Amino acid sequence: xxxxxxxxxxxxxxxxxxxxxSDDLYLPDxxxxxxxxxxTPAADPATAEKILQDANGGPxxxxxxxxxLKGLLDHEHSAAVSVAxxxxxxxxxxxxxxxNVVAMAPIELSNACVSDCVFCGWRLSNRAMKRLRLPxxxxxxxxxxxxxxxIHYIEFVSGDDVSVVRELIPRLVRETRALFEKRGxxxxxxxxxxxxxxxxxxxxxxxxxxxxxxxxxxxDPDVYRRHVVGGPKAFGIDDDWRVDKQGNGWRFRIGSQxxxxxxxxxxxxxxxxxxxxxxxxxxxxxxxxxxxxxxxYGATAEHPMLIGMPIWNHITTRExxxxxxxxxxxxxxxxxxxxxxxxxxxSEGTWVFPNCRVPMKTQIEATRVAGAFSSTEVKLGPGGxxxxxxxxxxxxxxxxxxxxxxxxxxxxxxxxEMGELAAVLDEREQFVHHYHGHDRYLKEMQKAGLHIIExxxxxxxxxx
Length: 464
Fold this sequence. Notes:
Layout: H1 30-39, H2 45-55, H3 62-73, H4 78-97, E1 100-110, E2 116-117, H5 136-149, E3 153-158, H6 162-183, E4 188-192, H7 198-207, E5 211-213, H8 221-227, E6 228-230, H9 232-235, H10 249-254, H11 256-262, E7 266-269, H12 279-297, E8 305-308, H13 334-344, E9 350-353, H14 360-369, E10 373-375, H15 386-395, H16 401-411, H17 418-426, H18 438-447, E11 451-453
Parallel strand pairs: 1-3, 1-10, 1-11, 3-4, 4-5, 5-7, 7-8, 8-9
Antiparallel strand pairs: 2-6
Helix pairs in contact: 1-12, 2-4, 3-4, 3-12, 3-13, 4-13, 5-6, 13-14
């Protein structure tokens, strides 16, 4: 067991004993976190080893995490500090989760969006993006496909397409829950959408949803407002799904996980690494926020909190990509960053979530080091799994013509051949991702000593 005796977990932290805002929702003290990020010296290899030895598998204090992260970002010491962080994190990961991993897969429903985020391919002002809303029956066809692969954690994803979030997602949640019951599957259902009100989260919980994912993008309000310039993401919404023109979208988004937890939904949170050049403050704010939510509402092996690692990738319509050429490339540090999240939040109820915005090799290494939860076969253009479904139908000798014609009509591409379909759908995704089939992930994870569970629970480890 980790030794935390005599350690003030929040030394160097700024987590208050009670919420700091009038709407009764927690907000990390960014001024103090930023000051800590500036004042803490970067850890050299010897200092890193001492910090990790003293922590002994227990939660890192904020100043310790800041020192290690600054060491990772320091060119001179980055490699050695990374090795130390990854080794310590791997020990914690094995103690908490063994070598088990829960696999999830998203189903994209719509890439239409009424928000305008300058970093995003789906932004309202991106006229180069071809838009597509998926009908419910084609979404459910993909749910069945993923369940057949052994993936029982399903995520429904949409841009800020209010009609889809209000009407389609509750229907799909109910139908997926019924399908789980019919198949005898213990599954979980997640959704990744615009930030919602507590009443809207409660409605989705009643429909059968388990989890929500909202990436903050940036905890720094100035960075957020420079990049999020219009739509519900800039202002927030009310219970009637109307944009609050006088609202604060940055603040509304930070409160989304807490509103969801009050409604009985498990949260997923994380800052988009690289959007804010002050990576240390963003990291500390994520950890600070997660600690508050976990201690206030609870995060357990049965009902875990996801700590996501979205990084600022290029978008698929490269001619309209506004990502600066000198934006930080965090791919090399991705496993160590995952490790630092786990070392800061070591609990069976905290699942670090490396995703496929990095190459498979990097994603698997981050999972080996720290991740209890990871995406495998991922297609983030709406309808992205349909080409695989068509191939399976062909192999079974089924007639694919009706489905093919339906898809051609949706994408408005007459004469589209099956071999061209995947590319046409993939170009509608939000950011560049790395695609591989679930079977390939199973093999590569196994080579790395990891076991993908066909389910949504990680067995409790003896002595954890």
